[in-house]
Specification:
The chain is an alpha+beta fold. The protein folds into two domains: 69 residues, Aminohydrolase, N-terminal nucleophile (Ntn) domain (Glutamine Phosphoribosylpyrophosphate, subunit 1, domain 1, 4-Layer Sandwich), CATH 3.60.20.10; 70 residues, Glutamine Phosphoribosylpyrophosphate, subunit 1, domain 1 (4-Layer Sandwich), CATH 3.60.20. The chain is built from five helices and seven strands; from the N terminus they run H-H-E-E-E-H-H-E-E-E-E-H. The strands form three sheets. Strands 1-2-3 form a three-stranded antiparallel beta sheet, covered by helices on one side. A two-stranded antiparallel sheet has the order 4-7. A two-stranded antiparallel sheet has the order 5-6. Helix 3 runs antiparallel to helix 4. It is globular. Pfam families: Proteasome. It comes from Salvia splendens. This is 20S proteasome subunit beta 7.
Length: 158
């Protein structure tokens, strides 16, 4: 679908190419159109990139809800990680500070959903291209007393 759109755009031979903002806008329309047909694509998408030295980061949900910001998240991360990012993210963060903040967010999400996997990869997008780290595991600590017996002190008939 998108490949055909990209090929069609290149056939105009006008020197313009699709950037991340244009692709995000296209995907927003696709997701909203599928929602209106009562046949949604069950995905949430994050799109980031650089065109003409302009950074772009946006997200779109399966029903076409979209936004762009300096930091985005999907699913559970929208509820738990975004507040942390709003408090601690700043424009002049170093790459290492950004990785530490991301790991903090991912650790919070992992502790809230024990069935999740603690492996992640970090992507870095620059004017020269992008790099993708090797997968690695977050260091976690599961010996908190609340984790050992989560129902201790809970009232109920169970």
């Amino acid at each position: 679908m998108f490949c055909e759109y990209s090929l069609y755009d290149n056939m105009w031979d006008d020197g313009n190419s699709l950037g991340p903002k244009e692709v995000h806008n296209y995907l927003t329309r696709v997701m909203y159109n599928r929602r209106n047909k009562f046949n949604p694509l069950w995905n949430s998408l994050v799109l980031g990139g650089i065109k003409n030295r302009q950074k772009y980061l946006g997200t779109v949900s399966m029903i076409g809800v979209n936004y762009e910001d300096d930091h985005v998240a999907t699913g559970f991360g929208n509820h738990l990680a975004r507040p942390i990012l709003r408090d601690e993210w700043h424009e002049d963060m170093t790459y290492e500070e950004g990785v530490k903040l991301l790991e903090k967010c991912m650790r919070v999400l992992l502790y809230r959903d024990r069935s999740a996997v603690n492996k992640l990869q970090i992507a870095k997008i620059t004017d020269e291209g992008f790099t993708l780290s090797e997968p690695y595991s977050l260091k976690t600590f599961w010996d908190f007393n609340a984790f050992k017996n989560p129902t201790l002190g809970a009232e109920g008939s169970w």
